[in-house]
Design a protein that fits this description.
Length: 129
């Protein structure tokens, strides 16, 4: 028997993506939600770094089609992004970066292609107005 997900995917192929639900622990009810979930899914050895604002975290998302990493503020309540900085031809994710908001810099270790010598790099973050 096909699930709703499989039926929906057949209609939308080739642009099929997973569906995500919020669970109300008290009632057991679920609600279908839309938005960007990649930063939540790709957490591995640490949590996302907070920006200091409620429900907001620093995230880095690599876009293969554009061959760039987008450094963003991620709103975990609404599952939305605000793009801050784009890094062309550099593959990073949220676990690879650390943001120093006081000094307005993003830090990351970069080894280039084929695992060359690693370097600690920093880039200035644009000042938000």
């Amino acid at each position: 028997m096909d699930s709703n997900y499989e039926k929906t995917c057949r209609k939308r192929k080739p642009k099929c993506s997973a569906e995500y639900y919020l669970l109300d622990v008290k009632t057991g009810k679920t609600e279908l939600v839309t938005g960007e979930f990649q930063p939540l899914i790709r957490q591995t050895f640490r949590s996302l770094q907070t920006t200091g604002n409620p429900n907001e975290f620093w995230a880095a998302v690599y876009k293969r089609a554009k061959n760039e990493t987008d450094i963003r503020r991620y709103d975990a309540k609404n599952f939305t992004f605000k793009s801050i900085l784009k890094l062309p031809e550099i593959l990073l994710d949220s676990m690879d970066i650390w943001v120093d908001e006081k000094d307005a810099k993003v830090y990351f270790v970069y080894a280039g292609e084929f695992g060359g010598e690693a370097h600690l790099l920093s880039l200035p973050l644009p000042i938000e107005k």
